[in-house]
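the two lines:
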Amino acid sequence: MTNFHNILKWILVGVLLSYRIASADAQININVIGNWNYSLPPNSVVEAGLDLSGTYTSNTNAVTIDVLQSTFFANRFLNYSWRVDVRKSDVDWNPGLILYTRRTGTGSPFWSVLPGAITGGTNYQQLTNTNQIFFSGNRSRLNIPIQYQLSGVSVLLEAKTYVTTVIYTVTEL
Amino acid sequence: MIIFWLQAISTMLTAQVATGDHSVQFTIPTIAILDIEPNNAAIHLSFAPPNEAGNPITISESGSNGSKYLNYTSAIATGGSSRQVTVQLTSGAVPPGLLLRVQASTALAGGGGVKGVPAGLVNIGQTAKNLITGIGRCFTGDGTGYGHQLTYSIVIDDYGLLNFDANNTVQITYTISD
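prediction for all of em together
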């Protein structure tokens, strides 16, 4: 075996070892930070005889999501691909209320040297009680901003607080 | 090296899943508002003098007025009761011998939900009286031609109490309530 082959072998071993260290015991995680609680003010109807405006929108970063690994090395070195699915689970909801979500930014890389990427989810999509693909990416990313929009709001619905839980599932691909 | 390779591959092939969640809460408040369209400007009601001695005073076209419309929006809490609109005089007095009346039409087309039911012809006095009842979660639409048309009229109740050239201004107040 030539010196070149020896060097190549040890480089390969080094790469695999680094990857193994980065991925050893690593576990993908998702942090969902924030929520969207909104109470319409009593003067929301601007003129007697009119209905509520029907559509209400949260801040562009009502919720932020971190997709990351559980270990220091994996967050910096592991090039893993992932996908985030989203659904809702109704607590006290009305089928006339339609909740939408979208991603309004790319967030930030866990380590700027190896930033990774993020795609999809930038258009409003209606949340249902079944998982659907939201967006995907690779490498760990932080503070991915999420915005919500609610339509179907009307005085014809019971005046009360409607509650649903939005569930994000990240899958390492 | 093969062990490293297999371990790396096995790590990559193990699909890992994690979940996170948060709540969304949206509150619709109770709402009860009404207004008079096209505006709150005064209306004028009067009688025409008789053309022939011995005839009664006649009610001219200006003895009634249907230019006003009542619009409202109502959002009711779970288990809440229906609402009503009452009418009353809040200032001034109707000239002696006369009755000032108002009648709400059935709810006109437009808006949506459970709109109220007119109570019929109501004599307007200083005590609040139901004009429209059974208002549920609804909105009537905004502007003239929406909601309930209000027709005001005056009638002679007692000739003996009439005063010549009595000219009174009264304020009529509508209230929507549970």
